[in-house]
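User
Take a look at the entry that follows and flag anything odd:
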Amino acid sequence: MLLKQNFSLKEYNTFGIDVVAASFVAIHSVEELQQILLKNNDSEKIMILGGGSNMLLTKDLDRLVVHNQIKGFEIVAEEKDHSIVAVGGGENWHEFVLMCVENDLGGVENLSLIPGTVGAAPIQNIGAYGVELKDVFERLEAVELSTGKVYTFDKTACQFGYRDSVFKRDLKGKFCITKVYFRLSKQQHQLNTSYGAIAQVLDDKNINSPSIKDISDAVIEIRQSKLPDPKVLGNSGSFFKNPEIPLAQFEDLQQRFPEIVHYSLPNGKVKVPAGWLIEQCGWKGKRIGNTGAYEKQALVLVNYGGATGEEVFLLAKEIAASVKSKFGITITPEVNVL
């Protein structure tokens, strides 16, 4: 382990924001993490970094940044219809999905090409195209930063919600997720083709009985057509959560905006895509200085080069204010703003 001082995080966050961490270290095992924690007993001054894909850095960080690079992919248990797979928290999420597809393990194919690491995925309860991480989640192991002790969290303990978990609330910044266990199907896969443009892509390719690889390929194609590559244009994917509003509020909006895009939810609320709301307010493709809303997807804020985190955050606040003014709906960041 090599501890580095005054370390630039520009290459470690997908927005490409150039901020400096007071110190930085990469860890490759639980034991290495525990050694670091023994030497740095102020857990409030430690930040765990995964793929840097769900954050907006607005200032230099006066703390030790620990880069989780714990790897591993192992089938640890076999059931009749499922395999339990253990994955290191530092594994790249998309590479993990591809490994599952290659091994005909179903359940995460709809989550293809989501940026970030496996360890960060439960924090956000990542989701796309009708599937969320919690649907295939078994348990996770995490190290408490204040003590170095390893704890196991099952699905109930994680308190998963829409792009939410206990690690974004009560336990925010208190644990490093080192291993995640998934329950994946190995036969009779339950394919989800009803959300987004998946069915259309499959139909265009004349695929009537899709495999999990077909689903994964379709999702990759859709995402690449809508989202910019962070290596080319800095971004953090979807910046805002899709708001869920009461049915009465939606019905009132539908009277004024008959074309409003929406999805009815089991809890009686209605989900309205944030991207649609933002686009209706005229932000799609609009550039302000070094930042703006992406030309193909208004939900994605981008760094055209040289943008500061404060610039991007100011743009986000202006967008949210315009949506509130036009629709009376509050949209909140999905991205963690630091």
Observations:
- The mean pLDDT is 93.
- The longest strand covers residues 175-185.
- DSSP finds nine helices and 20 strands in the chain.
